[in-house]
């Protein structure tokens, strides 16, 4: 008997000891008794000579570990840094299908056990022709039973009879549920397996990364390369070097839309060496998730490609962590634990003494700040591959345009769309807003249709004649007259992807126009659409931020930003940075092949700093100005920001509790921690919850949170008011 130390997955912060008949590997998922119930736990230690008074482990769930030692260390760090429960951290680290005892998928395989002579086969053909047909089908080798039944129409009774006669042997084998084995996935693979010729800047950056890999020490490299500069080729070569060293790789991308193309490129290289990668993101089925986790935990695969949660993959020998488009807000988790995938990636690389590559054409100010203050290594790529020119950018002032043209698309953008279609080149139109119209207004009484559960206007979706809330999902039939005064003069204002699609289709009726947003694309539809666009089956692609970054389409020569001002209107100190990043990223989809590209930016604020800097591709100029403003107001990255959010169904209670809390806090916290608020959140009501937030500015998160939580534990709140902490928030709405 052995002593098994277990970390219960029930929010209990301390470890418990149990007995088991043998030693268990670290990270094994077990069932253990806890008080009067049974719970799951993770084995963190095993020792011999167990005393008899300890309770015993009830069952071992899997014979392979579900977590690694470094992920357990990350769990405890996340609990402290993000001020969340340990239970919520483990729920994030260990997928639900793994905790719920997922199962493998099996298929039955038939093979011939007795070879018939020609005479015996003739007899079988006369007496049982269908049995003879099944026998002849298996002469070429074993076949899956379901294929014989469904494709050849051979009944299961016939196959059962052959098994009973001893002619066939029926066995079972496990089947990997791979989400990237269909035609759409194959079309995204890179045709040429041979690595591309590197430019001088790429070679310099790669030598720097190889030096860190060969040294076997932790180092973070910020790969700042303009769009189309060949960052992906550097990633692929670094991955190949790590796999040659026997290490494991985590490759993070911000959007599921980028995963098929990344996987296609990666697998086209790995298959040359008999290696495979695992895909991980939220669109996978439970079966696909379970098989992927098993492949990583057992060492069957050494590379995982996926969205932010892929950083928790149970790889045992991580030597390289890549975060592509590291500036993206999508890496931040919006629910507890509110972790940032990029920061967790850096920390996991640190725990494993691995190299972390943060790649982007528009790095976040936080990462650039860390180049100076945390010794990140900066590698610059200032030119596109093969010295291709950056796209020519045109700015259209929509205030002036609408004096002569009331259309949604400017004359400049419309004429260039016509021109590209005639030349059989492709175009992308970007509008970061779903739906057909953004609000309903009655000019007689001033009524605006708003969500009953959230403080936002309802968006009209003409496709199903509904007005919807994009936050809580509320929907209702679009009215024909004003619900308040019954006037028939109601007007739909604003526009989204559906209206842009409608306008473009009427303007170019022969063009193949496809819209890409969360309303039009499901799990596999998005992959198929992107594959069709790459194959030239689509002329114009209209989409939201799902198509704004990372994707590479060589035949795209025109990109249009229909409304570049959307992100500038947000009440967020990062609004200028987000706008600049978005424009540069979207513009970077143009001219990535042999043909020159153009970009048309439609805006009502043509002289705003983000738009002017983006037009000149002047990242350094924008960086200098933005950092100067941030420093003046002591905003991140010069200090950390902690957002404390209070929410409840009663607005007065939420406001009262937040005010009482701030008074309590101001009397106890040191002066160097700045408190702002309480104030209503920009989105004051979401899903029937009223929201008030408080901001804390601090030079040190851990020390500040420790003091705040100590005060919080003694503070008497209202049970109807919920409060949560968001450390280093990226969404202040």
Describe the SSE topology.
Blueprint: E1 2-8, E2 16-20, E3 29-34, E4 37-48, E5 59-60, H1 69-81, H2 86-93, H3 96-99, E6 105-112, H4 118-127, H5 129-137, E7 143-144, H6 145-150, H7 156-164, E8 168-175, H8 183-187, H9 200-215, E9 219-225, H10 231-244, E10 248-252, H11 259-270, E11 277-280, H12 286-297, E12 303-306, E13 318-324, H13 341-351, E14 355-360, H14 365-373, E15 377-381, E16 392-397, H15 398-404, H16 411-422, E17 426-430, E18 439-441, E19 459-461, E20 466-468, E21 475-477, E22 491-493, H17 497-507, E23 513-516, H18 525-534, E24 540-543, E25 556-561, H19 575-587, E26 598-603, H20 609-615, H21 619-633, E27 640-648, H22 651-666, E28 674-686, E29 689-698, H23 701-712, E30 722-727
Parallel strand pairs: 9-14, 9-15, 10-12, 10-13, 11-12, 13-14, 16-26, 17-24, 17-25, 23-24, 25-26
Antiparallel strand pairs: 1-2, 1-4, 3-4, 3-5, 6-7, 6-8, 18-22, 19-20, 20-21, 27-29, 27-30, 28-29
Helix pairs in contact: 1-2, 1-13, 4-5, 5-7, 9-10, 19-20
